[in-house]
């Protein structure tokens, strides 16, 4: 069972939904797939280092 409060869990789910929309789609070879949506190039994706998480 999770030790997170319901409020924190809801905030994390909201952040995750937004981040998934931003993920650049890619083909099996790692090239950008424009039909998959997202932003930027897969090889330029920096991850979640700039995302402020609830404490």
Automatic annotation (TrEMBL):
Region labeled Disordered — which residues?
Answer: 1-55
Q: Which domain of life is it from?
A: Bacteria
Bias (Basic and acidic residues) occurs at 1-22, 43-55
State what protein this is by name. Uncharacterized protein
Q: What organism is recorded for this protein?
A: Paractinoplanes pyxinae
Organism phylogeny: Bacteria, Bacillati, Actinomycetota, Actinomycetes, Micromonosporales
């Amino acid at each position: 069972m999770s030790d997170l409060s319901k409020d924190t869990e809801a905030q994390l789910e909201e952040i995750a939904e937004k981040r998934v929309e931003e993920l650049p789609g890619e083909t099996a070879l790692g090239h950008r797939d424009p039909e998959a949506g997202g932003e930027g190039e897969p090889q330029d994706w920096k991850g979640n280092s700039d995302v402020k998480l609830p404490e």
